[in-house]
C-alpha cells in the first residue's frame, strides 16, 4: 500500500517531524515553547477570523457536496499546517538566541551593489499606489488572495495537485524556519526606511519586540513571546516571496488562467518586499531557491502516487 494515498498522512508526518526538531532545539538551547496569544495578529490589522473563515467556507462546501474523502484530508491538513506554523514561529522567535550573529551588514552591501533594482522597487510601489487606492495594503492582501485562490481552485479540481500545493507550502515553512538560523538578518529597514507607511509602522512594532527579546532573552520569551509570536523579525530568506512562488508555479502548470492572473500580483509582491525594506534582494533570491527545492522534494515524493492515479484512469 502506498502510504501517500492515505489522505493527510504525509502532511501529519511532516508536521510532527518538524515539531520534534523544534522541540529538540528548545531542549538543546533551553528555550521556552510558546503558543500565540488571542490578539497576537492584531498588529497586522487582521484577526484569526480571516484564515478561520476560509477554512469554514471550504469545509462547508465539502460537506454540502458530500466530498467526504476531501473533507477528512482537509481537516487533517489543517491540523498539520497549524502544528507547522506554531513550530515555525517559535523557531523564528528563537533565531537570535540560537545564532546571534547577524548578516545584515553584508546583505546591505549586496543591496547597494544592486541599488538600481532597489530604486526600481520604489518606483513600482509609487506606480501601484497611484493606480490602486489600497496600495499600502496590497503586500499582504495580494498574498492572501493567492493563497485563498489556490486553495479554492485546486481543491475543486485535481485532488493530487491540491495535496501537492498544500504539502509544498508546508515544506516551505519548515525549510524556511530552519534557514532563518543559517544566516540570520533583521532587514534593510535598519538602514533605510521603506516607502510603505503601513509596513514601516509594523516594522517599528516588530523591531521593538526584537530589541526587547535580545535584552530580555529567555525570560522575555516566556512572558511576552505569545504576544509577539507573529511579530518576530527574520529577513533571510523571504518566505513571503517563497510561498507566493509556490502558488504561481502550481497555478501556471495546472490552471493556466489562474497562473496568468497571479503574475502581476507575484511581480508586485517581489518588488514590494524590497520597497517596504522588509527584505534585501538576496533574500528574494534565497526565497525562490527555497521554493525550487520544496517543489523538487514534493514532485519526487508524489511521483509514485501520480503514476498510480494515471494508471487507474487508463
Automatic annotation (TrEMBL):
The keyword NAD does not apply. It is a multi-pass membrane protein. Residues 131-297 form the Inositolphosphotransferase Aur1/Ipt1 domain. One of its GO terms (cellular component) is membrane. InterPro entries: Aur1/Ipt1 (IPR026841), IPC_Synthase-Related (IPR052185). Its main location: membrane. It holds the Pfam family PAP2_3. This is Inositol phosphorylceramide synthase. It comes from Erythrobacter ramosus. The lineage of its organism: Bacteria, Pseudomonadati, Pseudomonadota, Alphaproteobacteria, Sphingomonadales.
